[in-house]
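Each letter names a residue; the fold follows as tokens. Both lines appear below:
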Amino acid sequence: MKKVLKFFICMIFLCSCTSTTPVGNSIDGKILAGYQGWFNAEGDASGLGWKHYSNNKGFKPGNINIDFWPELTEYSKNYTYKTPFKHSDSKTASLFSSVDYKTISLHFKWMKEYGIDGVFVQRFSVALTKEKKRKKNLFKVFDNCFKSAKEHDRVISLMYDLTGSKSKNVVEVIKNDWKKLVKKYELNDPKNPNILTFKDKPVVSIWGVGFRDNREYSLEDIKESIFCKFFDNAYTLISKEKGFDSLVPKEKLLSFYFTFFEVLLLNRSYVLFILSNSRDKMQKLSSLRRLRNSFKQFASGLIEQGNTSKQSIFTKHPELIFSEGAWLQLLFLLKFWMDDSSPSFEKTDMAIEKSVRIVFDVFDNTPIDSIVDFGKFLWKENTKTA
């Protein structure tokens, strides 16, 4: 019972995700906790003082920010810190710090002992914009959690807490941080036994959306971030394929489209919910704004690559105009895919191939045959649905 009380201070919630038997690193059947890891102590390696123990009046008898005092019997004395508080026997009371690996490892050891399969590691996006000490502490705590999960055979998942973030940078802050963590820890590798997955995909969650307390970011910011993440996932997959860099622009665009719509298929219910339930076209497009920026940058690179093979300046195509045309093509394919009811979305695959052929025939100044072929395809589809 004492261990439960010790652990309570680090927990947000417990949840049994399903009633099924846990399998590997899948979320099915797992009992998971929220883990904030936000406690620091005077004298630890962070230099942040009594962060989250103290209130706005400091840290001394009469001023404290916690509801329970942790019982420290199993903590290493080398990793506890003396406080201004006294126990009833007049001995100095001590506390732990999340910056210490031994402390977080102990928490993960308790998880294993009490049948808790893993945690959502809370990551505070606002701290990523703060001074160097705050950011360094955030990375150290996550590193402690990642290593502890491996040591005690637990699973972890990242949960971004947006509290305190700003609308102008919340998406970019999360996006850039995720890329850094993926590069260092390979968090997007579902084969990692300590990474929480759902249907063989890593689980990442976002907390702090939908509150009506005048937060400086909106649900639209998050929608934009999610669609941009779909692009990032697709591009990461194709760029890792052997020989991708040597492909011609047409093959690169085909590879991207097929992969991108596979990513969307895994999230089809979400895509349909967001884009089909928007009140008007402009609202739909606002959710795709960051996707548009990323895709147009990708398309511009393809156009630039294609232009290098053209000898005459008159046959080279302006990147701005053709990247915008590629974006309109993606919007067309997205709408086609949303309406497609063919087995395995075979007709979407056909639409991709024929529309890409048109784009690059135009690019190579030989469009007539492909335009006629694509026109016949669309006419047949419209006739069937009429």
Summary: Residues 1-19 have pLDDT under 50 and may be disordered. The radius of gyration is 26 Å.
